[in-house]
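Exercise 3.2. Students should predict the tertiary structure of the chain below and write it as structure tokens, then compare their answer with the key that follows.

Predict this chain's 3D structure.
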Amino acid sequence: MNIYANGNGRGKTAMEFEANSYSELELDYFKENPKTAFAFKSERKDEREFNLKQTLQSISKVASRIAPLAQYLAPITANMIVNAVPGARRNFNPLTAQLLYPLLQKGDRESRQKEAEFFGTQAADIEIANTGIAHEAALTEVLAAEASHTESESEAAALIGTALPIAFRVMDGRQLLRPVLPMLLVATARLVRFLHRHSRDSRRLLRLVPTILRRTVASLLAARRWGCPMTSALVGCVVAGQTKRVLGNSQLVYQSITRNALIRFSTVAAVPRNPSGDQRSFQRDFF
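Answer key:
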């Protein structure tokens, strides 16, 4: 995991994605010609701003295309998860959904607070905190991004499965790990399988899984604090509920997709120099 620190306690922002490396000859020349150096750096800065703007436009086009698909799949995916977890379907009914609402809301709030600590408050201006836990949160986003790229369903499941225990640590939920991890693995594996098989566009929705996992863990922690038993029915219903809430919210889909793509760019992938030149190539290679 290569997350760069900039020396001030924060990680690099989206405006600092591309490294500006100069040779020794260039540095010597710039020292002797400061005006030229200033102009050269300004040109590089303008180029980075242009690349970021074009990159965000490309991400926006993809997110806008898959947001309606996410809304369509939200109830279907939630029902599929409920059916996959033993006891969840038998215990899932309108009354259960009503009782779960406060838990889901609590999970949403706590997850947003954590994400603001890790990545900042602006989806289009990612600033990864220079802390170990923030780096782990970014790692879950990268794993999900790689899962969305792979043609192998088993590889996608393995990548997301690796992200699951990290999500527990990120949300301070390690005390929940043993009793609910097997049930969450079953539900998450079914989610990954469904999104990977449905269509190529639905694979892009795998980038939303870290958001779903963080909200799920936060909701289960709230349930534990409120004295709820950690049953398979509760876990299945919470995963289904958070999946439906995330996929069904177009604004959240857009924000989460943008954040995920920019985190991947800032850590393991180079920002394309001119994504506007070939939108299809950009979407294939980088998104």
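Discussion points: The radius of gyration is 21 Å. The chain has twelve helices and two strands.
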